[in-house]
Known about the structure:
Blueprint: H1 2-15, E1 18-19, H2 24-29, E2 34-35, H3 50-62
Antiparallel strand pairs: 1-2
Pfam family, one: Rad51
InterPro entries: P-loop_NTPase (IPR027417), Rad51_C (IPR013632), RecA_ATP-bd (IPR020588)
GO molecular function, one term: ATP binding
Amino acid sequence: MKREAQNLLQKVDEKSEKCTVGCPILDRNLNGGIPTKSITEVVGESGSGKTQICLQLVLSAQLPPSHGGLNGSSLYIYTEYPFPIRRLK
């Protein structure tokens, strides 16, 4: 049963659209990027780049496919104040 569940999960992972994080090494380690149509939690130590990766994903999702994006929309929930708008520039 465990092997069947793993095979099913792998098939779903292969079929789902991915959003690139903009770094080939990270994308490769994430099997092509972050899966879309799902909720992803990013955790790590302070200063490890979590916010920067998330902001990059928000922008990548909105780019047209001709620029490597998904031509979609995204929702970013940031629970601290102030929002790091300077990092987007």
